[in-house]
Design goal:
Blueprint (H helix, E strand, L loop, with lengths): L5 E10 L5 H11 L3 E7 L2 E8 L1 H13 L6 E10 L7 E3 L20 H7 L43 H7 L21 E5 L10 H10 L4 E4 L4 E6 L3 H11 L7 E3 L3 H7 L4 H7 L6 E5 L16 E5 L4 H10 L3 E5 L11 H8 L5 E5 L11 E5 L2 E6 L9 E13 L9 E10 L9 H18 L5 E5 L5 H8 L6 E4 L1 H13 L5 E11 L5 E9 L4 E7 L2 E2 L11 H12 L9 H4 L6 H10 L5 E2 L2 H11 L11 H9 L11 E3 L5 E4 L1 H12 L4 H27 L3 E5 L6 H13 L3 E3 L11 H16 L2
Length: about 775
């Protein structure tokens, strides 16, 4: 052996399994004449090289400079060793270690190479609806455990044919160790059934279904992480039937367009929207709908936006080629229940809602709904973080001393497990309102603990005593430290953690409901906050939540609560829709509740203020889905206005109160004068943005801070968010908002985990 030969060992951590990383290493090492090996293990990838120092350093430049497109390197450790006389470079069998740092890739949309093969006449995989390679296909949803090898996935029952096996073991082929690798001769296949279970005997089940969808029929379609309910989005009768069967009265449906060109004909897209739509994540992107889109108004009643996505599986591509028009592709579930992902559940629960079932025989192990996003300031603004994102962790600029489980909230639940510098946020679980969703929570949590070998040493939870996630934390996590975290503090810290920043900052948390430490229902809060603590300095003035939780679904109740201080019992004679809908028999009880506060706890909720204004303007008196009143208020608004209504900030000591009563009074006069609803809504949005700015200015006077964090479900309102950011920046504030983590309650588990870790550190555990 030459004295110039050196030996180096690289330990690579991140998303480096199932993304073509070992073939990439193999090719790079061979080109440089290096000897040694590469292998997968439960920590990531290990590489051993022997050659000259210059060759090894050149390899390192390639490793860091041009890894495979779907790889995500989080850490590289290099050490020098004594040479052992390696004779060749090889790819060795995977091995399992006691510790786990390997990451499982999210599911990846079909890559251009596979799409081209599938659509090329005469290709070996022409028309095969489960084509994939190391650059695309299912990952997280088929993985039972790590290392990410075929035997540890739901592809284990499918024995590869000679052609697939040759590609699988060829380091020069892009299907080298692509665990879902298959073809129609050895892999999963689709099958079509009528809703009564009768199998349709056809050589082209996808083509057959395409014709039926164009004829007004509906279908349940098995995808990557669950099922979709589908119909022709341009057929109003078909959409109405599906809406009725799904028991989803008015909540918008997502649609799938055949390609980007067709998406452009449906929505006004920015460059950022296009990038997000065509990314390997392929989320549902919410964008303004064109008036001549041809999509039925029943797809998104009362909205001027559409949730649109592009095909992300080979099966989707084949189906969209057959129909060549946008299809409704909404989550396969009934309202308030988790997405269905097992064939038996689909047959039992959803088959009566459709005409056909398009199934396949590759099992889904981890249910994972479609992600939903918007774009803001040319960046993604995630609304629902799920397929394409999970289970990819966020990497923080510091390490937690303990492994902390954070259980999230009640609505839009997602949990988080924080270990070292990585925050593993689960896929979207949903609203924990029923046993089925809690079962989904437990299954997903156990899956994360299994695939990442995570053992929580503490648990963080929301202070609301009735949240099911809170009860789980207190009752089902064993004898470990339990840390309660205030809801809105978690919102603010979730932004800091995502952005890799630390406090203290000014935090504005605006949402519908959050348990306050004084027992009130918070939701319009200005605070100073860091990882450890917060101080509430302003809040929206308390208003009775007339009838308690019912007020969130009956916005007229909040309108009455805001009108009563202005009109007293004369309220009953106001010529408003939210007043005239009340029968004379109900007024005595309502007036008593308004006078005494009985069954009407105080709330500072910004979400309920938006509900009140929506009802006041006659836009939405009763809601059929969460935040419907506020969404339709935003839709009704003029987008640009400099006019505002008056408001007050009152109090002699902190926390001060932001009082919108003068704005309600001004709006009332304009309503009575028949001012356009669009104008009033636009002025209201600008007024709230100015409230946010003025509140932050008061906090800056007190604290000297000039960084502002905006979080909470109200900031899903793009009009309000844009106005607030503009006003704050005009006043010299630096504004931080979400991008990769939802601003709604789907993001609070990240904040809970970080706060929990910080409190543990200072508590000396």
């Amino acid at each position: 052996m030459s004295p110039d030969v050196r030996r180096a060992r690289f330990r690579v951590e991140g998303i480096v399994q199932g993304v073509g990383f070992r073939p990439f290493v193999y090719g790079a090492a061979r080109r440089l004449g290096l000897k040694g090996y590469v292998l997968n293990d439960s920590r990531g990838v290990e590489i051993v090289l022997e050659g000259s120092e210059d060759e090894i350093l050149n390899f390192e430049k390639t490793l860091t400079g041009s890894p495979p497109p779907r790889a995500r390197i989080l850490k590289i450790q290099k050490s020098w060793e004594e040479p052992e006389g390696e004779k060749e470079f090889s790819i060795r069998e995977s091995r399992s270690l006691d510790t786990t740092q390997a990451l499982i890739s999210p599911d990846i949309a079909t890559c251009p190479d596979c799409l081209r093969e599938m659509l090329t006449p005469g290709d070996y995989r022409e028309g095969y609806p489960f084509i994939n390679c190391t650059n695309c296909g299912p990952r997280f949803t088929i993985t039972l455990r790590i290392p990410y090898d075929r035997k540890n996935t739901t592809m284990a029952p499918f024995e590869m044919c000679p052609v697939c096996k040759a590609q699988y073991y060829d380091p020069e082929d892009r299907r080298f160790h692509a665990q879902p690798n298959a073809c129609r001769r050895c892999g999963p296949l689709p099958s079509l059934y009528k809703s009564d279970g009768t199998k349709i005997e056809t050589g082209d089940p996808i083509g057959f279904l395409g014709k039926e969808l164009l004829a007004g029929k509906s279908a349940l379609i098995k995808g990557l992480g669950g099922f979709h309910l589908a119909c022709d989005s341009t057929d109003t009768d078909a959409v109405i039937r599906l809406r009725s069967r799904k028991r989803r009265e008015e909540k918008p449906f997502a649609i799938m367009a055949p390609d980007l060109e067709r998406a452009e004909s449906l929505c006004d897209l920015t460059d950022a929207d296009r990038d997000l739509l065509t990314s390997f994540i392929r989320p549902v992107v919410i964008a303004p709908m064109k008036k001549d889109s041809g999509v039925s108004k029943e797809v998104a009643p009362g909205q001027n936006t559409l949730g649109i996505m592009l095909p992300y599986t080979p099966l989707h591509h084949l189906l969209m080629k057959k129909v060549n028009r946008p299809l409704v592709m909404t989550s396969g579930n009934f309202s308030d229940e988790p997405i269905i992902y097992r064939d038996d559940e689909a047959r039992e629960q959803l088959a009566p809602a459709v005409d056909y079932l398009l199934l396949h025989n590759r099992e889904i192990y981890a249910r994972c709904d479609d992600s939903v996003a918007r774009t803001f300031s040319d960046r993604p603004y995630v609304i629902r973080r799920s397929r394409g994102y999970a289970p990819d962790p966020l990497v923080l600029p510091w390490k937690s001393q303990k492994t902390v489980l954070a259980c999230g909230g009640e609505l839009k639940n997602a949990f988080c497990i924080l270990k070292d510098d990585r925050a593993y946020i689960s896929q979207h679980i949903g609203d924990l309102k029923n046993p089925e969703t809690m079962d989904a929570f437990r299954h997903s949590l156990n899956h994360f603990k299994e695939i990442f070998r995570l053992s929580p040493e503490a648990v963080a939870y929301d202070l609301h005593p009735d949240y099911r996630s809170t009860r789980f934390a207190l009752e089902e996590t064993g004898d470990i430290p339990k840390i309660g975290v205030q809801h809105h503090h978690a919102h603010i810290v979730s932004v800091l953690a995502e952005r890799g920043e630390e406090g203290p900052v000014i935090g504005v948390s605006a949402d519908g409901t959050g348990y306050g430490e004084d027992g009130a229902i918070w939701g319009g809060e200005w605070m100073t906050a860091d990882f450890k603590s917060y101080k509430r300095l302003l809040h929206l003035k308390y208003t009775p939540l007339l009838g308690g939780d019912r007020a969130a679904w009956e916005p007229w109740r909040m309108a009455l609560a805001y009108l009563y201080p202005l009109s007293g019992e004369l309220l009953v004679d106001l010529p408003l829709g939210c007043v005239s809908k009340i029968t004379s028999d109900n007024w005595p009880v309502l007036l008593k509740m308004l006078k005494t506060g009985v069954s009407s706890p105080p709330t500072s909720s910004m979400g309920r203020l938006f509900d009140a204004v929506s009802a006041l303007l006659g836009i939405r008196l009763e809601s059929h889905y969460e935040a419907q009143a506020a969404m339709e208020l935003e839709q009704a608004a003029e987008k640009i206005t400099d006019r505002s209504y008056p408001f007050k900030i009152t109090g002699d000591a902190f926390p001060l109160q932001v009082d919108p009563t003068p704005a309600i009074e001004a709006m009332l006069w304009e309503i009575l004068k028949k001012k356009p609803v669009s104008e009033i809504s636009g002025v209201f949005h600008n007024t709230v943005a100015l409230m946010i700015k003025e509140g932050c200015a008061r906090v800056r006077e007190e604290s000297g801070l000039d960084r502002v964090v905006l979080s909470g479900g109200v900031f899903q309102n793009m009009l309000l968010l844009g106005l607030a950011v503009r006003h704050l920046e005009d006043e010299g504030f630096k504004v931080l908002v979400h991008s990769q983590v939802p601003t709604n309650d789907g993001g609070i588990s990240l904040g809970q985990a970080v706060i929990g870790a910080e409190k543990l550190k200072h508590a000396g555990f």
